[in-house]
Amino acid sequence: MDHTESRDGTDDTRTTPEPESAPASGPTPAPESASTSGSASGPTPASGPTPTSGYVSEPESASDPAPQPAPGRQPQPAPESARKRRRPWVRRVRRAVLVLALVLIVPLVAVETALRVNYMGDPADGTYTRDRDAMWLGHAWVDGRKKDADVTALAGRLEDTGVRDLYVHTGPLEHDGTLPRSVYPRARWFIDAVHRELPGVRVQAFLGDVLANGGPEGLELSDAATRAEVVRSAGQVLDTGYEGVHLDLEPLHSGDGHYLDLLDDLRELTKGRDAQLSVAAHQIDPLPHLHSVAGFVADHPKWWSQEFFGQVARRVDQIAVMSYDTARLFESTYGGYVAQQTSLALEVTPPTTHLLMGLPFYYESNPSHWGHAETVGAAVRGARLGLSRTDPDRELFGLAPYIDFAATETNWREFKDGWVR
Fold first, then answer.
1. Is residue 338 a contact partner of residue 324, using CB atoms and an 8 Å limit?
2. Interacting residues of 310 by C-beta distance below 8 A, sequence separation 6+
3. Using CA atoms, how far apart are residues 351 and 391, in angstroms rounded to an integer?
4. 171 touches 207 (CB < 8 A)
5. Taking a C-beta distance cutoff of 8 angstroms, is the pair 100, 130 a contact?
6. How many helices (H) does the chain have, and how many strands (E)?
7. Could you give the CA distance from residue 328 to residue 369 in angstroms, rounded to a whole number?
8. What is the pLDDT along the chain (421 residues), one digit of tens a residue?
9. What is the DSSP secondary structure assignment for residue 150, as one 8-state letter?
């Protein structure tokens, strides 16, 4: 910090003062010479002007011309510290930068520290799989790219896990809510193959689309006709043989009443067909009203309020939190974040609704998802910690890996070692 203020708190912008010149007191007597015995022939005049700080002294006679700078001597420039004092705006800018840094950095450090602390401790005994886990699957399973051998391999992979629901990407929906049958020509084959290879595992149609939210393109939830088409599309996939509908619409703003209306209509449909209604859910505000701030500065709100999350959870059979893409930089803070999200979700999810926490079965490195931090191991441990602290006996709870085609052996090993054992 540049301390340039004077003792009284005012800016010290003084330059070197012009010295006072000596008074004209007459001729200066000559000093006594060591070689004379005190005799002198008269006063000895001054030999010339004596410069003082670059300026001449007052002339001996008032009739002499005004003092002039000594030849070859110019006023010395002010030192560097004085030049700095003449620029108070520099100091103001520095202070503004410091204040901004404190406003941004101090809360960030506090949050990261809290998340790291939240990752400490040991999960409670018994907080392992309840055999109610799920998994998101890619579109290749229903468009003709997968074969019988692939289903057999998938069955072998899931045999020793608690996965009991498969969310198979069957869309995307058209922006008007319709769903062309041509995009899932092998759906019936896949459903039958799973029932054969994995008895007791349900297959749900994963339907999604980008929401308009005032943009030029996307599905418009405020349009009643569009919502009606989404319900018809859900009935269409149930007619195909799916045992549930899994809805993923993004970016979905917290408090969207039209979305709640859509869920009410879908729930009436699925209950009449004895089918499941499940949704992929945004994360919950890690700080109060953070969704409002995010919605103000970005078109893609990352969080829902805890209240809205609870409103959604009460309208569905299953709710799966997309607890990845968190921008956390370290495994400990990511795991602490998942623990926090688990607790927040458990607090408002009724015990009759099945809550699942998503796991990142993929690797990316970008500002929203750092692969070295968002590991499956950290997510599993975080979910167990949140479960332990909030509702360790919750039966309708599970984990949901996303997504099958990007999964690695490390992902599977961390999932099984941390959760399935």
1. no
2. 348, 349
3. 10
4. yes
5. no
6. 11, 12
7. 7
8. 443 443 334 344 333 344 444 444 444 444 443 333 343 334 444 444 333 333 333 444 444 555 555 555 555 655 555 555 557 777 788 888 877 666 667 766 777 889 999 999 999 999 999 999 999 999 999 999 999 999 999 999 999 999 999 999 999 999 999 999 999 999 999 999 999 999 999 999 999 999 998 567 999 999 999 999 999 999 999 999 999 999 999 999 999 999 999 999 999 999 999 999 999 999 999 987 554 554 444 455 789 999 999 999 999 999 999 999 999 999 999 999 999 999 999 999 999 999 999 999 999 999 999 999 999 999 999 999 999 999 999 999 999 999 999 999 999 999 999 999 7
9. H
Tokens of 326: 């968190």
Q: What is the CA radius of gyration of the chain?
A: 39
Count of positions (residues) in the chain: 421
Residue pointed to by tokens 């919605």: 295
The residue among 267, 376, 254 whose CA lies nearest residue 303 is 254
User: Using CA atoms, how far apart are residues 324 and 387, in angstroms rounded to an integer?
Assistant: 17
Residue 337 amino acid letter = Y
| Contact partners, residue 363, CB within 8 Å, separation at least 6 | 371, 406, 408
What is the pTM for the complete model shown? 0.75
Backbone angles phi, psi at 367, to 5 degrees: -60, -20
Distance (Å) of CA 5 to CA 1, 93, 201, 255, 287: 12, 16, 75, 52, 40
Q: Which two tokens stand for residue 362?
A: 């993929």
| Structural contact between residues 16 and 77, judged by C-beta atoms closer than 8 angstroms | no
**Residue type at 289 in one-letter notation:** H
How many Cα atoms within 13 Å fall on the side-chain side of residue 165? 31
